[in-house]
Each structure stands twice: as C-alpha cells, then as structure tokens.
C-alpha cells in the first residue's frame, strides 16, 4: 500500500509526537480510547501508518467496522483502532496527539467544562510541562496553516474525530456549495489515497453540515427564533459527530442570548 508521506510537515509532526514524554499506564490498556479528535495532517499520518501496518483487505474491513458506543465515555465512539481483546492500539506509531496527551496533568492548564481527564493517575503524568504543551499546540497549529488549511466561518473544521474524518474523506459531495471546505478537500485528495469503498457513513456529519448551513441562512435573514432553535439542535442532535462545531455553536448562542 501507499508509502508514508515524506513532506517536511509530516516529519515535523512526527518529531512533535516523539517529543512527548511517555506515560506509564501500567495494566490499563487504553480505557480512554474513544474515537480520537485530530487535525487533517494528523489524520493523513494516522491513515498512512494504518496502510503500512494492515493489508488492504484488513484495512477495508477496519473501515467498514460498525461504530460502537464507548462504555466509559457515554456519547463517544469506541476507537476503531483498539483491539477488542487486548485493548492495544493497532496503529500505535501513527496515533494522534490527542491519544498521546490524555493522562498528562499539563492538560489541566487548558481545562474547559467539556474536558475529561484520566482518573487512573498513570506514572510520569507530571513529566510534560505547560510550556512544552503550549509549544506542541503552537506547532500543530503552524503545521495546519502551512498545509494551507484555513477555515473561516461558518466552518471551523479544525478537527474532527476519526469516524467523522473517514466520513468526510469518502463523501466528496459534502464540499458542494461549501467553498470554505474546498481547501480541506483538496488537501485530503492530494495527500491521501485510500482504497475506494462503498462507504455508508459512521456519523451524522452530513446532517450537521446542513444544519450549520441553515443556521447561517437564519443569521443572514435576522431570524433570531430560528437561530436559537438551530443552535440547540447543533448542540444536542448530532452526538456522533463529537465536538465539531460545539464551541462555535455555544459562542453564537451566548451572543444571541445577551
Ligand atoms: S491515559 Fe489513563 S485511561 Fe488512558 S491508558 Fe493511560 S491510564 Fe488508562
Ligand atoms: S488510535 Fe490508538 S491510542 Fe488512539 S484512541 Fe485509538 S486505539 Fe487508542
């Protein structure tokens, strides 16, 4: 299958991953492994690692695995890369930054109301400093921008979780009439060549995008009542899409409620 990409930003991303101190999770084999949220370059790197580690047949079977709800984190999907028997990660070298960071105490400096933390106190959890973590976030953001991935309103598609990325990749029609998604589509089309499959979708991403379109239609027409209803829908009706457009919807809601 396709070789690992060798562009400078992938090397930088890998280097950034490797700069993180490892956690000692003892006997816990990935209780936190929900479908991880990541940027587009991370998704490409993860898929490329999977293409190297899996045969094409295994990869297609993996893509088609149905979504499983995570028992420890209701409302989240079980990560499709986690081995259901051993709990081990099947794409360990290509796992996302979110996978590598969970469990580090430094994350608490960036705490918000929706954030979850590991309660198992893994060894080495204080080894990552706040400054190092800030540098990591900046680097990921710079890589993102260097890939010409800029998102303006109404789409802050900075990151999706794994199942939603797969849906986006296999549904090029989602970009039709949404020019703000074009650079992302172009990036994925250029960087990633996954096997063609008949993909029926793991998430309700298409419905959420349509609802965001509606929201901006109501904003443009000054229809506050419909805006409020649409925002409530965005916040509550699309749990399978994870945190995508959650913060943005909350911010718009707060502005309208003032
Ligand atoms: S970070 Fe926490 S939940 Fe995740 S594998 Fe380590 S100990 Fe387990
Ligand atoms: S990619 Fe690997 S480490 Fe990350 S959530 Fe999935 S199984 Fe866990």
Task: Please render the helix and strand layout as text.
Blueprint: H1 8-18, E1 37-38, H2 40-53, H3 56-64, H4 97-101, H5 130-146, E2 160-161, H6 162-169, H7 182-191, H8 205-220, H9 224-236, H10 246-257
Antiparallel strand pairs: 1-2
Helix pairs in contact: 1-5, 8-9, 9-10
What does this molecule look like?
The chain has helices at 8-18, 40-53, 56-64, 97-101, 130-146, 162-169, 182-191, 205-220, 224-236, 246-257, and strands spanning 37-38, 160-161. The protein is an all-alpha fold. The protein has a two-stranded antiparallel sheet. Helix 1 packs antiparallel against helix 5 (130-146), helix 8 packs antiparallel against helix 9 (224-236) and helix 9 (224-236) packs antiparallel against helix 10 (246-257). The N and C termini lie far apart (54 Å).
Properties at a glance:
10 helices; mainly alpha; 258 residues; single chain; binds iron/sulfur cluster
Short description:
This protein is mainly α and 258 residues long. Helices cover 45% and strands 2% of the residues. The protein has 10 helices and 2 strands.
Inertia-based shape: globular
- Spell the H/E element sequence: HEHHHHEHHHHH
Taking the sheet with the most strands, its summary is: 2 strands, antiparallel
Name the quaternary structure: single chain
């Amino acid at each position: 299958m396709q070789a690992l990409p060798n562009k400078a930003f992938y090397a930088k991303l890998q280097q950034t991953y490797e700069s993180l101190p490892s956690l000692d999770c003892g006997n816990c084999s990935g209780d936190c492994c929900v479908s991880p949220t990541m940027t587009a370059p991370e998704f490409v790197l993860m898929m490329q690692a999977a293409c190297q580690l899996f045969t094409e047949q295994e990869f297609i079977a993996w893509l088609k695995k149905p979504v499983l709800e995570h028992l420890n984190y209701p409302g989240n999907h079980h990560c499709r890369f986690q081995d259901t028997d051993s709990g081990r990660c099947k794409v360990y070298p290509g796992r996302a930054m979110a996978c590598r960071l969970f469990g580090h105490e430094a994350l608490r400096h960036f705490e918000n109301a929706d954030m979850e933390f590991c309660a198992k106190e893994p060894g080495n959890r204080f080894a990552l400093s706040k400054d190092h973590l800030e540098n990591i976030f900046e680097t990921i953001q710079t890589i993102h921008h260097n890939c010409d991935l800029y998102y303006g309103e109404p789409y802050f598609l900075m990151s999706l979780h794994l199942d939603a990325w797969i849906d986006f990749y296999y549904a090029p029609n989602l970009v039709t009439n949404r020019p703000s998604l074009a650079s992302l589509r172009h990036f994925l089309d250029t960087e990633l060549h996954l096997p063609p499959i008949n993909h029926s979708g793991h998430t309700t991403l298409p419905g959420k995008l349509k609802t965001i379109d509606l929201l901006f239609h109501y904003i443009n027409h000054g229809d506050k009542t419909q805006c409020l209803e649409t925002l409530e829908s965005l916040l509550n009706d699309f749990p399978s899409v994870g945190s995508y457009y959650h913060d943005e919807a909350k911010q718009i809601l707060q502005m309208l409620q003032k």
